[in-house]
Amino acid sequence: MGNFLNDYFDLVGRGTTVSRELNAGLTTFLAMAYITVVNPLILSDAGMDFGAVFVATCTAAAFGCLVMGLLANYPVGLAPGMGQNAFFTYAVVIGSGQPWQAALGAVFISGILFVLISLSPLRAWLINSIPRNLKLGMAAGIGFFLAFIALKNAGVVVPSTATFITLGDLKSFAAVMALLGFFAITAMAARGIRSAVIIGMGVISLIAWFSGQANFVGVIAAPPSMQPVFMQLDIVQALDISMLSIILTLLLVDLFDTAGTLVAVATRAKMVDAEGRLRRLNRALIADSSATVVGALMGTSSTTSYVESAAGVESGGRTGLTAVVIGALFLLCLLFAPLAQSIPAYAAAAALLFVSGSMAQSLLGIDWEDITEATPAIITALMMPFSFSIADGIGIGFISFVIIKAAAGRYREIPAAIIFIAAVFAAKFAFI
Predict the structure, then answer these.
(1) 108-133 burial, b for 16+ CB within 10 Å, e for fewer?
(2) What are phi and psi of 128, to 5 degrees?
């Protein structure tokens, strides 16, 4: 078995082992497990059945992870995306008054368009044309984005009417546990303990359960029926002209969220060539886009590559075996849903804080001597957390790259792909 896995995933060539990949898969899954609860909660606000969406979430995630691992050999986990599910519920269904069946149809159509782009040279050309400094800015920006999510989930930072955001109650149990877990994980990692993230999350969860601060709801339960949402999409209604901007937005968000995540994670996993191009990119894109199509059929919003995959990469994950493990765990989650749902958000926050620091190291590689390269990279990095959107951060960063280069008289250094992406985002910001 070990020889087969090594031959299929090239474990030795990637400098990893089966045990390391298993550890990485478990690490990423634990960091992503919250989606099994959060996604059904959000989509239930659109009128969808919680239990059915829970099953759809797990199965769509499992499909995406397995295809990503077996086809693309990337250590990247997939699941219904945060942000996409909020857009689905609060903008399309509640905001625009569309039935959730039509919204699922829009997700399906955007996924089909995504697949077609992925099968063509267009998307690989778009992503591989991104300048190195912008890629580094994207990686750092996702790190900042992760840090903001972690701090928010732990209550370390909270909303403020006066300053938009302010320091939360650091004496609260959630904040103390998140910070304690972060310091513990960092200390263990500094000592060379590869399972530092898992150990840290496990200890914090145990403390929370035994102290009564988190609800341990059990281990095993029969999965609910998926029938209320399975194959309930309304493609005919989704083809109405009023849904055009919705489909385009879904496509753009999925496209560039995935691009940013793949670039960042692959860079950290050293899966780029000497010119900074991602290996087997087309296969990764097909895996991501096909997962969105399948997810819509199952009954959930857009499925996308997860930035939490960086946690697994930091734990040593280098191949698709990591993704296969994540997919298997999502399937198991159908039976062990209570256990996965018992992991408190602040335990995962500790892991995300640790990962964010590692990803921010990408800033070291930026060419700080060239202001036309450094400034757009920093704008990209900062706008991701400030806009609370990876896609919008990329868009604003690319627009700034074009404007700064052109204003400096260095328009010949602007790749055609960047002009195209910037124009698409400018149109999105202006008209959608």
Answers:
(1) bbbbbbbbebbeeeebbebbbbbbbb
(2) -70, -15
What CA–CA distances, in Å, run from 275 to 133, 267, 318?
12, 12, 19
pLDDT at 241 over 80: yes
Residue 275 has pLDDT above 70, yes or no: no
- Give the contacts of 186 (CB within 8 A, at least 6 positions apart): 196, 354, 357
Which residues are CB-neighbours of 391 under 8 A, at least 6 positions away? Answer: 83, 252, 253, 255, 256, 257, 260
Mean pLDDT of 144-148: 86
Helix axes 244-268, 121-128, angle to 10 degrees: 60
Cα distances from 286 to residues 40, 77, 118, 262, 310, in angstroms, run 25, 14, 6, 12, 20
pLDDT surpasses 70 at 399? yes
Listed residue (190, 244, 283) closest to 428, CA to CA: 244
Best CA proximity match to 261, nearest among 126, 154, 123, 359? 359
List, in order, residues 6 or more apart from 355 with CB less than 8 Å away.
31, 143, 146, 197, 308, 310, 311, 314
Please state the separation of Cα 390 from the chain's center in Å: 9
Determine the Cα–Cα distance for residues 216 and 208; give it in Å rounded to an integer: 9
3-state helix, strand, coil in the chain (%, to 5): 70, 5, 25
- Tell me the one-letter amino acid at 226: M
Residue with tokens 């159908």, as numbered in its chain: 334
**Rounded to 5 degrees, what angle do the CA atoms 343, 349, 354 make?**
125
What is the rounded radius of gyration, in angstroms, for the C-alpha atoms of the chain?
Answer: 21
Q: How many Cβ atoms from other residues are within 10 Å of residue 365's Cβ? A: 17
User: How far from the centroid of its chain's Cα atoms is residue 234's Cα?
Assistant: 27
User: Which pair of tokens denotes residue 419?
Assistant: 């002009």
The predicted pLDDT at position 395 comes to 86
Distances (CA, A) of 17 to 10, 260, 267, 315: 10, 27, 20, 12
Q: Which domain holds residue 314?
A: 2-431
- Helices marked H in 120-243 — which ranges? 121-128, 132-153, 173-190, 196-210, 235-238
Is the model's pLDDT at 194 over the cut of 70?
Answer: no
pLDDT, tens digit, for every residue of 280-335? 888 888 999 999 999 999 999 999 999 889 888 888 889 999 999 999 999 998 98
Let me know: does 404 contact 372? Beta carbons within 8 Å.
Answer: yes
Could you report how far apart the first and last alpha carbons of the chain are, in Å? 51
Number of domains into which the chain is organized: 1
